């Protein structure tokens, strides 16, 4: 069984090998075009030569240039040295004959064969059959570069569909041979080439295939090809509009004579393709006898001089070399046996005969010009009447080519000097209506010829074109509103040329009106470009009477909805203020604020000085984006503190001080902000340090300079601050330490400044406290300072009152207020000025808090080990320092905390705690029996607050601690609060049982104690989930 499967497998593999690449002998790698182009790059001088040759060839093929296009050179290139010598001779002759002939050297590297034979330099550069194609491509590109460097354009036959990717950027004209004209892939290739392409008639003399090839190449195609990188690709083309036919003779004999040319022109016109053609002096027209090539060239020169077909002959082809005739390649591949400068393919004429042929063609071109020239006004009128008869026809498929030829005849008359006669304008007026009709034609070729005629007339007449401008200019402007961009581009080009040569200041109102009021945005944009030409070309006296209208058009253009119109209007404004500098101030005065903004003109019409913010924004716009500083609210000094003041920290505010007086805000220049999430330390003077700082609690070594509050929290006093300053250090309090000290400091009620605590405690306030604190219309005394973004859950750019940003001990908040009489409150106020003494039970409270912290920490760690909750990464994780709010009692997840977009109250922060205490203080006393229990409850609340603040202070990890330690600290903090709440609830329950309180109250307290005593697992999980969602 296994043997049978093996045999079947081998048969299957053998069958597959017989299906693909059966006749492929060998496959070798081919160099990618891009690599070869980088090894042999196009130089600047060579590029200039190639572009000039392409433009000249296109103009001659389209009938815009009356010179003759001559493709002359060897039948094929096999010796690059001989080719360069021939190029030197031809380049020297081309400089002398440039007025009559546009000479492009024939440089053919590929040769089609009817059967077999040498296929050209690219395919077999060594002429020995080794097919070193990579070497051939390199030699071909090198030769084309050398010829272009001599100032001589080159033309090639496109035989292989891939080779143009290697040399296509170095040629100015291309040909499709008689054997490939009918090939679909070559028609597709021609539709994407960047040069004019000539299609030869078939080898049998059939011209129809060449006409079909031109029509196909003018259309868009999509086909398979390769890129410059050598990769297979799908190529889409837009069509080549510069194709023409080449008459090369055929099996029926030559086809260069006048009767053939006239017949082919009519056939081309009927097919709707370009009737201008090229004649090949070799191949079928010379019956493959190189001695007959001069005979063909003489006949062409005669047609140029004396026949009507001469105007349709655009070019000729000549096969020429240094030595006449041809030779065969030696069978032993010994190239030394070859004659230098002699063709190895078709026979060529020598250089001497080539010069004679070119001179004869030059004379034919000159005679054609004389025939088109006007010797007198009567001669011009006679020729014009003939052309006018052809123009007077209704445009359709059969007559449009006749109208186009008549327009081209008018172009020839204008170029021949007809505009010098006084009768030119009156004679041309009857033809204006036909010219306008052709301008508005839907056929782009006919419209283009009419616009070209208008351009030539304006160039020759210059300022004398004014009588005809009123008849032609409005119609030409209509092309600027066409949907087809080809019409729009040609119309703008024609009108710009007319304005440049003829100025036409009388057309300024028409152009300005179109630029301001036309509903078509394309017309407005085109009119803006014409207006710029008017402002640039017209002289000051010519434009003086229209300046007000020009200014109005520019002002309307800079605020136009079309971005092209706005851009052009700004360019017109730049030209206007340079040419008419004396009107700049008056022009600016009439501009709107929006127009001034677009023109970047400083608006000083209000007369008010520029604000600091506006100046800062203006400075930002002048700087590169990466160097712009981000706007940050500058630090301000706290109330009642002057620069360099050594006021005592923690001392009560003295009555009569200027605490309530508004303090002038010193606003320094904006600076680059600090790290967005980095910690910011608050100094004693209310400023912030823009460097990451580690949290440092008051060290036990400072006991000599530290006092202990009523709850046992050490606070730095004035002498400690003085000692720090004496040591050369700036005393710094982090927000956590400042908040802890503020919560435990003795109350100071003597000051009447509008501090945070007074706004919170005020019972007359009907507006929410935090809203009033953060509102813009807050009292002037409550100056604002930056908030530490690393410790408070607000944006770094948010602000809070300076009483929180500065040292909190200057305006320390009052202690918890319980339900006592006014006398007790007075005693509290009186005792606030005395130094605080530590209570006796402070140490047990701290010890209990530490124990609760340890138990809560163990519980949190066990919960995290049981279930790992995935967390999202954020910028906060990568920022050193604490990332959770130390002022918040229930901040969700250290690693998931985010900076809030605006300042808003957090859960269980210091402010909310004070608000709750203030509300409890305002509740009326219910009964005398409950006052004692309420007092005990208040004391329990005070103890709870003390323990809470103690545990918060003790639970902070270092500023650079890892994320998991910060999360553990946050979990431990919540666990400590849960334990403290459970102990407080149990204490209240036992006390109420002793006092015999109501049963429902006892049940509520028991439920609270049970709920508080439960593990914080559920709450912790809920907070984590909510943090992940946020």
Q: Roughly what percent helix?
A: 40-55%
- The strand count comes to 17
Biggest sheet: strands side by side, in what order?
A: 1-2-3-4-5-8-9-10
Q: Compute the average pLDDT.
A: 73
Describe the structure in your own words.
By secondary structure, this protein is α/β, with parallel strands linked by helices. It is built from 38 helices and 17 strands. The strands form five sheets. It has an eight-stranded parallel barrel with strand order 1-2-3-4-5-8-9-10, surrounded by six helices. The chain has a three-stranded antiparallel beta sheet with strand order 12-11-15. Helix 15 runs parallel beside helix 17, helix 16 packs parallel to helix 18 (485-502) and helix 19 packs parallel to helix 22. The longest helix has 33 residues, at 963-995. The radius of gyration is 48 Å and the shape is flat. The relative contact order is 0.04.
Q: What's the arrangement of secondary structure elements?
A:
Layout (H helix, E strand, L loop, with lengths): L1 H16 L15 H7 L4 H18 L6 E6 L6 H17 L4 E6 L26 H17 L4 E4 L6 H4 L5 E4 L7 H9 L4 E4 L7 H10 L4 E5 L5 E5 L6 E5 L10 H14 L5 E4 L12 H14 L6 E7 L31 H22 L4 H15 L8 H16 L8 H5 L3 H8 L4 H18 L4 H13 L6 H18 L5 H10 L3 H17 L2 H4 L3 H11 L5 H17 L4 H6 L3 H7 L12 H11 L58 E3 L4 E2 L16 E3 L5 E3 L1 H9 L5 E2 L1 H10 L11 H6 L7 H6 L9 E3 L12 E3 H4 L16 H10 L10 H25 L43 H13 L5 H27 L8 H33 L3 H15 L3 H13 L1
Parallel strand pairs: 1-2, 1-10, 2-3, 3-4, 4-5, 5-8, 8-9, 9-10
Antiparallel strand pairs: 6-7, 11-12, 11-15, 13-14, 16-17
Helix pairs in contact: 3-5, 4-5, 7-8, 10-11, 12-13, 13-16, 15-16, 15-17, 16-18, 17-18, 18-20, 19-20, 19-22, 20-22, 20-23, 22-23, 28-35, 33-35, 33-36, 35-36, 36-37
């Amino acid at each position: 069984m296994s043997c049978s499967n093996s045999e079947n497998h081998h048969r299957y593999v053998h069958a597959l090998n017989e299906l693909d690449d059966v006749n492929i002998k060998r496959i070798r790698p081919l160099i990618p075009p891009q690599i070869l182009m980088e090894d042999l790059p196009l130089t600047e001088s060579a590029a200039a030569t190639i572009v000039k040759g392409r433009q000249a060839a296109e103009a001659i093929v389209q009938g815009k240039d009356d010179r003759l296009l001559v493709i002359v050179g060897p039948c094929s290139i096999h010796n690059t040295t001989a080719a360069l010598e021939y190029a030197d001779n031809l380049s020297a002759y081309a400089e002398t004959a440039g007025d009559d002939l546009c000479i492009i050297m024939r440089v053919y590297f590929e040769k089609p064969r009817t059967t077999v034979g040498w296929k050209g330099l690219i395919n077999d550069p060594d002429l020995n059959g080794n097919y070193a194609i990579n070497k051939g491509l390199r030699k071909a590109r090198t030769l084309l570069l050398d010829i272009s460097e001599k100032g001589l354009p080159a033309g090639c036959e496109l035989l292989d569909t891939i080779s143009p990717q290697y040399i296509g950027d170095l040629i100015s004209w291309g040909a499709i041979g008689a054997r490939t004209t009918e090939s679909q892939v070559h028609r597709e290739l021609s539709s994407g080439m960047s040069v004019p392409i000539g299609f030869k008639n078939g080898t049998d003399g059939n011209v129809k295939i060449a006409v079909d090839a031109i029509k196909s190449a003018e259309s868009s195609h999509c086909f398979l090809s390769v890129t410059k990188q050598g990769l297979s690709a799908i190529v889409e083309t837009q069509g080549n509009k510069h194709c023409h036919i080449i008459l090369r003779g055929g099996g029926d004999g030559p086809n260069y004579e006048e009767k053939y040319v006239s017949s082919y022109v009519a056939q081309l016109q009927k097919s709707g393709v370009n009737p201008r053609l090229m004649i090949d002096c070799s191949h079928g027209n010379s019956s493959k006898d190189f001695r007959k090539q001069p005979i063909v060239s003489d006949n062409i020169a005669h047609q140029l001089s004396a026949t009507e077909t001469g105007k349709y002959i655009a070019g000729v082809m000549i096969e020429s070399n240094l030595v006449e005739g041809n030779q065969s390649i030696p069978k032993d591949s010994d190239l030394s046996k070859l004659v230098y400068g002699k063709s190895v393919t078709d026979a060529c004429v020598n250089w001497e005969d080539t010069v004679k042929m070119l001179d004869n063609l030059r004379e034919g071109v000159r005679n054609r010009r004389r025939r088109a020239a006007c010797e007198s006004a009567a001669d011009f009128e006679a020729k014009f009447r003939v052309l006018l008869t052809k123009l007077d026809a209704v445009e359709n498929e059969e007559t449009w080519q006749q109208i186009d030829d008549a327009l081209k005849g008018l172009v020839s008359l204008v170029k021949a000097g007809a505009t010098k006669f006084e009768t030119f304008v009156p004679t041309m007026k009857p033809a204006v209506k036909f010219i306008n009709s052709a301008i508005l034609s839907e056929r782009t070729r006919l419209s283009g010829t009419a616009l070209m005629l208008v351009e030539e007339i304006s160039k020759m007449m210059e300022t004398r074109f004014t009588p005809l401008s009123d008849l032609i200019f409005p119609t030409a402007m209509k092309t600027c509103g066409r949907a087809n961009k080809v019409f729009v581009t040609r119309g703008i080009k024609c009108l710009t040329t007319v304005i440049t040569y003829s100025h036409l200041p009388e057309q300024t109102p028409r152009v300005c009106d179109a630029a301001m009021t036309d509903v078509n945005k394309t017309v407005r944009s085109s009119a803006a470009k014409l207006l710029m030409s008017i402002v640039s070309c017209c002289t000051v006296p010519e434009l003086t009477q229209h300046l007000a209208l020009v200014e109005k058009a520019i002002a309307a253009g800079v605020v136009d909805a079309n971005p092209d119109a706005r851009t052009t209007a700004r360019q017109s404004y730049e030209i206007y203020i340079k040419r008419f500098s004396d009107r700049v101030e008056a022009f600016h005065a009439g501009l709107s604020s929006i127009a001034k903004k677009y023109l970047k003109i400083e608006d000083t019409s209000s007369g008010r000085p520029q604000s600091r913010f506006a100046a800062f924004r203006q400075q930002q716009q002048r700087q590169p984006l990466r160097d712009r500083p981000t706007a940050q609210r500058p630090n301000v000094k706290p109330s009642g503190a002057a620069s360099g003041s050594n006021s005592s920290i923690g001392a009560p505010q003295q009555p009569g001080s200027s605490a309530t007086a508004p303090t002038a805000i010193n606003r320094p220049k904006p600076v680059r902000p600090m790290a967005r999430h980095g910690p910011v330390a608050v100094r004693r003077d209310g400023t912030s340090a823009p460097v990451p700082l580690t949290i440092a609690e008051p060290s036990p070594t400072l006991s000599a300079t530290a006092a202990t509050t009523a709850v046992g929290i050490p606070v730095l006093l004035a002498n400690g601050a003085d000692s720090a300053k004496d040591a050369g250090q700036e005393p710094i309090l982090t927000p956590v330490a400042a908040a802890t000290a503020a919560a435990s400091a003795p109350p100071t009620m003597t000051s009447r400044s509008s501090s945070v605590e007074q706004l919170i405690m005020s019972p007359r306030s009907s507006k929410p406290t935090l809203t009033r604190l953060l509102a813009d219309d807050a009292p002037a005394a409550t100056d604002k300072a930056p908030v530490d973004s690393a410790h408070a859950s607000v944006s770094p750019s948010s602000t809070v009152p300076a009483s929180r940003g500065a040292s909190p001990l200057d305006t320390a908040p009052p202690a918890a207020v319980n339900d006592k009489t006014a006398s007790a409150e007075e005693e509290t106020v009186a005792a606030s000025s005395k130094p605080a003494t530590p209570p006796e039970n402070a140490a047990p409270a701290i010890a209990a808090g530490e124990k609760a912290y340890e138990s809560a920490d163990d519980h949190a760690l066990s919960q995290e080990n049981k279930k790992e909750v995935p967390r999202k990464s954020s910028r906060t994780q990568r920022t050193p320092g604490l990332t959770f709010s130390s002022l918040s009692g229930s901040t969700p997840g250290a690693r998931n905390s985010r900076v809030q977009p605006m300042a808003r109250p957090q859960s269980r922060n210091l402010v909310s705690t004070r608000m709750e205490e203030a509300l409890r203080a305002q509740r009326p006393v219910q009964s005398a029996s409950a006052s004692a229990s309420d007092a005990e409850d208040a004391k329990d609340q005070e103890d709870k607050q003390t323990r809470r603040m103690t545990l918060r202070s003790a639970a902070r990890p270092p500023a650079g601690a890892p994320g998991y330690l910060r999360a553990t600290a946050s979990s431990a903090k919540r666990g400590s609060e849960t334990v403290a709440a459970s102990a407080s609830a149990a204490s209240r329950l036992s006390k109420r049982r002793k006092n015999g309180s109501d049963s429902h109250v006892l049940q509520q307290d028991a439920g609270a104690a049970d709920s508080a005593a439960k593990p914080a697992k559920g709450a912790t999980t809920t907070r984590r989930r909510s943090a992940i969602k946020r």
